Amino acid sequence: MRVVRTYTGGKLLDRMQGITPGTDGNRPEEWVASTITSRYADDPNAGLSIIDDGGDTRRYLRELIATDSTAYLGTAHVATFGESMGFLAKLIDSDKRLNIQTHPDNGKAMEYFNSPFGKTEAWYIIDTRIIEDQEPYIYLGFKPGITKDNWVKWIKEQDIEALEASLHRIPVKKGDVFLVESGMPHAIGTGCFLAEIQEPTDFTFRVEKMMNGSVPYPEEVYHQGIGYEKMFECFHYDAYTLEELLAQTRIQPREKSRSEGHVLLELLSDRHTTRFAMDKLTVTGTCSLDPTDTFSTAVVLAGEGMLSHAGSTISVSRSTELFLPVTTEPLQWESTGIEPLEVLVFYPPKG
User: Fold this and answer.
1) What is the DSSP string of 174-210?
2) Cα distance between residue 319 and residue 302, in whole Å
3) Which residues have CB under 8 Å from 346's CB, separation 6+?
4) Rg of the chain over CA atoms, in angstroms?
5) Which residues of 235-257 are buried (b: 16+ CB within 10 A; e: fewer)?
6) What percent of the chain has pLDDT over 70?
7) Looking at 249, 269, 284, which one is the last position of a domain?
8) Same structural domain, 39 and 114
9) What is the pLDDT of residues 107-155, one digit of tens each?
10) In terms of domains, do 121 and 239 share one?
11) Looking at the structure, do residues 239 and 312 belong to the same domain, yes or no?
12) Distance between CA atoms of 37 and 27, rounded to whole angstroms?
């Protein structure tokens, strides 16, 4: 489901989805196998994924799960999280820097929004592009010497140069992985096409009122309805040297399994966080992957092929999104195209 946001982009996402010509616009995000709605969309169902089961009836994934959440999500997951999948995955393609922002941690989310989930997130860089001679980058984490008083003052003055200078600017490249804990200030820069896995909320505190020279949004878009003073309390004012920051946030993928027909990389696991996990599967021939103890969602980044499970087979290709219920049967993958079949797989939190 493509979703309208407060920034622009989407050209690389268009190309991935076979939309020609690819253009940048106001729908720069694809929410993957989503059961979450966008907080400020006019359409109350914006963000919800529609399942394709070969029938004529329009049905949301959220409705399907509700018919038998234990069968789809697993007994252990439902015991802890109910019908919530416990995470949301997105594809994000920015042609301009996003607003400098943060998200509430679990304590603040419960206090201010009565939500058990905050919005810790992680990014996998799918691809990049140079825009107006700017190499792709992200802003992440406070530099040493930044205090809450500094930060609040510069927000109130809308001193964008000072706000930017307060954060580490980090060049990024294809294949990089970052874990961004809730409360840490950050911004995705220009030219980043990435996958984001996050806790399943849409709470975002934004600090720039004239983003990209546009007309300001209603105040609630910035402080999410709780007021600016409470918003300021949601930032974590820990400061880091660049080395300290990268040691905490940049994740090194590692190999989970390999055969003649596949490589499975762990991008993020419970070694890093209990809130979600993410793998990248590359198939060059055929492979059989043993079942995990949970459900997952997935998106095909490249190639084409077949996915078989329990006697059923479907074709998959670039941009195919999948909801993979909990199972005791292996998944059989086959690459049938010229280029390898590449799949990102997203997993829920540990109960």
Assistant:
1) TT-EEEE-TT--EEE-TTEEEEEEE-S----EE--TT
2) 8
3) 32, 87, 89, 197, 276, 277, 278, 296, 297, 298
4) 20
5) bbeeebeeeebeebbebebeeee
6) 97
7) 249
8) yes
9) 999 999 999 999 999 999 999 999 999 999 999 999 999 999 999 999 9
10) yes
11) no
12) 15
**Cα distance between residue 117 and residue 323, in whole Å:** 21
Q: In terms of pTM, does the model score above 0.85?
A: yes
Domain boundary among 222, 249, 276: 249
93/34 same-domain check: yes
Question: What DSSP state is assigned to residue 230?
Answer: H
Please, what is the end-to-end C-alpha distance for the chain in angstroms? Answer: 27
Domain coverage including residue 6: 2-249
Neighbours of 72 (CB within 10 A): 20
Taking the C-alpha atoms of residue 6 and residue 26, their distance in angstroms, rounded to an integer, is: 7
Q: Measuring CA to CA, how many Å separate 164 from each of 38, 144, 258, 303?
A: 27, 14, 42, 38
Place of tokens 């086959």: 334
The CATH number linked to 315 is 2.60.120.10
Do 227 and 284 fall into the same domain? no
Same domain, 202 and 300: no
- The confidence band for 212, taking pLDDT boundaries of 50, 70 and 90, is low
Query: Which H/E stretch holds residue 122?
Result: strand 121-128
Token duo for residue 47: 């963000």
HSE-CB for 159 with a 13 A CA cutoff: 11
CA distance 190 to 330: 40
Q: Which two tokens stand for residue 351?
A: 């109960």
Mean pLDDT throughout 337-343?
A: 97
For residues 211 and 270, state if they share a domain.
Answer: no
Does 143 share its domain with 281? no
275 DSSP 8-state letter: S
The per-type count for the chain, helices as H runs and strands as E runs, is: 10, 21
Residue (of 271, 324, 336, 329) closest to 299 by Cα position: 324
Spatial CA neighbour of 125 closest among 137, 116, 109: 137
Q: How far is CA 10 from the centre of its chain?
A: 15
Into how many domains does the chain fold?
2
